[in-house]
Amino acid sequence: xxxxxxxxxxxxxxxxxxxxxxxxxxxxxxxxxxxxxxxxxxxxxxxxxxxxxxxxxxxxxxxxxxxxxxxxxxxxxxxxxxxxxxxxxxxxxxxxxxxxxxxxxxxxxxxxxxxxxxxxxxxxxxxxxxxxxxxxxxxxxxxxxxxxxxxxxxxxxxxxxxxxxxxxxxxxxxxxxxxxxxxxxxxxxxxxxxxxxxxxxxxxxxxxxxxxxxxxxxxxxxxxxxxxxxxxxxxxxxxxxxxxxxxxxxxxxxxxxxxxxxxxxxxxxxxxxxxxxxxxxxxxxxxxxxxxxxxxxxxxxxxxxxxxxxxxxxxxxxxxxxxxxxxxxxxxxxxxxxxxxxxxxxxxxxxxxxxxxxxxxxxxxxxxxxxxxxxxxxxxxxxxxxxxxxxxxxxxxxxxxxxxxxxxxxxxxxxxxxxxxxxxxxxxxxxxxxxxxxxxxxxxxxxxxxxxxxxxxxxxxxxxxxxxxxxxxxxxxxxxxxxxxxxxxxxxxxx
Length: 495
Prior knowledge:
This protein is an alpha+beta fold. It has helices at residues 8-16, 22-40, 48-63, 106-113, 156-164, 180-186, 220-230, 252-255, 280-290, 310-332, 339-350, 353-373, 413-421, 450-464, 477-481, and strands at 43-46, 75-79, 117-122, 134-135, 139-140, 142-143, 146-150, 169-174, 189-192, 212-217, 242-243, 246-247, 266-269, 299-302, 379-383, 399-400, 403-404, 425-432, 438-445. It starts with 7 loop residues before the first helix and ends in a 14-residue tail after the last helix.
């Protein structure tokens, strides 16, 4: 096994025991990136020299017997929505194509402080508006399992980098599935925490917890380790509870997840939450998979919370946030704003204050329905996405099984159900779907039960090992290293 394919937990252990050097790990990640990134276009900005310098300093700390951070020596990719000193932060927008960050975002600074070695920036759609990772600055990102298919979005570059072994850890952000959907499409793990666990002070609408930062990795333990390094007492985010200058969510337990007895779990499952336009292929794939393991739980019921008005509620609240951030950009630079952002701003212009009140009221009702539901169940399982990966030339699915979608984000409904309720949700790789492409199992826990949700997911991950129908799929390096550069494909640049 190449060092770049090690889990973050194992690589961290080997470095701490001096069986692997930080420089060896960094060079392995760089070598893999140089070999496969042209085929997928996941990493869009990097400074390998700075990365090597950081790895050298990390190794000196190991050699000198210093106290090591949680992520000491581990390469980390950062989504191109977040500032990294000296690297571009374009947001996938032509307006910011030449924007170079002068400072680290507080999240990046925290991860550096915990020892992470920053590798570079990963691709995302313009302003993260879209479930397909493509833009007019860096072009498209392809699914590493089939280079003609989408990696989903908006954290598609991060998911692809992980799947290819470019780095063991990556940042993502999530509104309606932006880190969970790419994780599902690419066979990796993505975790959207409960609002308030990971600070995100840069949200312009700080009182709305729709958009959150979260960790992405290849295993549940790695996601939990990274999450522990992201927790900090940051009062700039009004959703982060800070008690006596300490975070209410303590990081230490996430570094070593507790055991969870699956036989005691009360679990519900659904293919559509009662409203999602789930492709029949995905529903069938899900049903076939849960037949292989559903019997292990103490309670196993086909049911779901009441999600009345979920589509309309999410549409209004999403448009509200986009109008608040992007309306002025569209007015000042109408020719440089892409179709998804433009459509969302125009949609927001159509809503009235009464529409917003209705949406907030309906979200409150949905939230309370979910709390009642989780008095009876510990976890809810569902597909992460409504569809199997499609051609990356398709900006978004306009129809599912012949039925038209309502918007570019409508196909993300399997993920935004839990966004509206504010519950932690993790995507766990669960083999392949009936098209032979990665399948993501969504695990939703009780609000605030992030540790238990991760522990439960880790037990399922362990259960799936050795089962060819359920274990995490792996990319073919031969396929990627012999493929033509994605940049040569027709339609690569733009929307």
